[in-house]
Amino acid sequence: MFRLALIQMLVEGGEKARNLERAAQRVVEAARNGAAVAVLPEVMDLGWTHPSARSEAGAIPDGETFQSLRALAREHGLYVCSGLAEKTDSACFNAAVLLAPDGKLLLHHRKLNELEIAHDLYAQGDRLGVCHTDLGTIGLMICADAFAQDRVLSRTLGYMGADIILSPSSWAVPGDHDNSKEPYGELWRSVYSAVATEFSLWIAGVSNVGRITAGPWQGWNCIGCAQAVAPTGETVLMGPYGVDADTILYLDVETVPRPARGCGWGAHWRQPS
Fold first, then answer.
1. pTM check: above 0.85
2. Is the peptide bond before 61 cis (omega within 30 degrees of 0)?
3. Residue 261: per-residue pLDDT
């Protein structure tokens, strides 16, 4: 059994130093509370579609954000998963990584199903993968990858043997959205649940909170609502809604052997006592 921490943190557009400091504080808190895996949001360092990515995105593995995440994993002895803006010699990517407790890069994903409004900022992703760990087989995707046509990306991770899919996300609504009239989250529940039940795996999506101050969705709000869906398809954990809903959610996950499409481990869950 291991403890998963879903870090639903405030992300300020373009404020890399403050975001990295905040992420470090949250990961330290998660480690102190016994987390074996800490998951941070999509483009945690600069904010989704914030134009600062053109000048402030860093390389993997040499960039500031990646090195900060690596140091956290090593110092606190836990798996760290996060979204970040990645810069190569020729392009900028909406990327995510999974680091082992010794700082080793286990997974490096570039978002494949990016929204059209972000295509002028982020280049097309080119990879999808899983890794085998002492906690089970972990797959990695980013936000809208989950609702690619026919759920092809998350289902592919299932076929690749994933028992756990981690999904750094940035879930946003218009500034005048009324959650009492239109409760947020059904889209993610539906796409997560279908894949979770088909492959007997579970999926955790972790969104940031805060106001979007630049880019195509300027004036929208990121509102959290981080979710974990069990292999039964049931949503077993959901974070609070709101631009100020900065929090950490915990889930204790037990992995047991299961017969599955070729290999892997099954995932069972229970909420922390």
1. yes
2. yes
3. 44
